[in-house]
UniProtKB/TrEMBL annotation:
Record lineage: Bacteria, Pseudomonadati, Pseudomonadota, Alphaproteobacteria, Hyphomicrobiales
InterPro entries, alphabetized: Acyl_CoA_acyltransferase, Gcn5-rel_NAT, GNAT_YJDJ
Keyword Transferase attached: yes
Database matches in Pfam families: Acetyltransf_CG (PF14542)
Residues of the signal peptide: none
Name under which the protein is recorded: N-acetyltransferase
GO molecular function: transferase activity
Keywords per UniProt: Transferase
Length: 91
């Protein structure tokens, strides 16, 4: 299961990584969630952390029945490579 947690006060999903945290920022508009920006600590890039974060975000939003506007290029690219999340995306 995913270690990704929602932090609604900060409008971001977080993946704690020891002393670091990977984050995916979002905005909510009704039942739609706009994923706006993703950050992975520089020293952890290239280790699949972003993909683990994205999977947790999309699984969380699918479980909530949310529609997703993947404005963040990384999240949009992840969704395009994982057709199981296509139904979540808005045009």
């Amino acid at each position: 299961m995913s270690d990704v947690v929602d932090n609604p006060a900060a409008q971001r999903f977080e993946l704690p990584l020891g002393g670091e945290t990977a984050v995916a920022y979002y905005r909510v508009d009704g039942d739609q969630v706009a994923l706006t920006h993703t950050e992975v600590p520089k020293e952890l890039s290239g280790q699949g952390i972003g993909s683990k974060l994205a999977e947790g975000v999309f699984e969380t939003l699918r479980n909530r029945g949310s529609k997703v506007d993947a404005r963040c290029p990384f999240m949009a690219a992840y969704a395009s490579r994982h057709p199981e999340y296509a139904a979540l995306l808005v045009d």
